């Protein structure tokens, strides 16, 4: 069971706590004006009406890497993660940061302003989406084969953990699986796990 799905905040936007389960790679659909506090709303595939509102530092990252035209961001992709060291009101509350972006072929260091008169080096890594997309049909097929061999819930849980570790490894390497593929694989494993749950097993006939 993927517990991260049960702790998603009830909100009209993507929150840092939504990423407690790990980084998320998103493909941008459109960028629109937000509000006075959060001037930019980034809608992405599968956001379900909960856009990402980048802070000023991350907007500077996007402009430095992709340029100032927000409309041109459609179709581009980036990996978002939860940075637990982000402060608000002097308290560590966590915030959303960008680790990887498409459209670059090497690490891109940027000097971002932290406080007035103080800057900090921030590095964005290249996101190789197309390279990983070519592998996705094979990945789905492999998951189907592996989960079909599971004879009990423990074996299904082991396959779930192995897949989760693989997803994380791809994220860390800047070669993430597409959200659609991750969701499909999780659904395949979840369906098999449900069928193996004790409450769904037939009761032995009384001998």
Would you write up a description of this structure?
The protein is an alpha+beta fold. It folds into two domains: 3-126, no CATH class; 131-197, no CATH class. Helices cover 32% and strands 24% of the residues. The chain is built from five helices and eight strands, in the order E-E-H-E-E-E-E-E-E-H-H-H-H. It has helices at 56-66, 129-133, 136-148, 153-172, 179-196, and strands at 24-33, 40-44, 77-83, 87-88, 91-92, 95-101, 108-115, 118-126. The strands form two sheets. A six-stranded mixed sheet has the order 2-1-3-6-8-7, covered by helices on one side. A two-stranded antiparallel ribbon has the order 4-5. A hairpin with a 6-residue loop joins strand 1 (24-33) and strand 2 (40-44). Helix 3 (136-148) runs parallel beside helix 5 (179-196) and helix 4 (153-172) packs antiparallel against helix 5 (179-196). The longest helix has 20 residues, at 153-172. The two termini are 35 Å apart.
Summarize the structure.
Helix content is 32%, strand content 24%.
Strand-helix topology:
Blueprint: E1 24-33, E2 40-44, H1 56-66, E3 77-83, E4 87-88, E5 91-92, E6 95-101, E7 108-115, E8 118-126, H2 129-133, H3 136-148, H4 153-172, H5 179-196
Parallel strand pairs: 6-8
Antiparallel strand pairs: 1-2, 1-3, 3-6, 4-5, 7-8
Helix pairs in contact: 3-5, 4-5
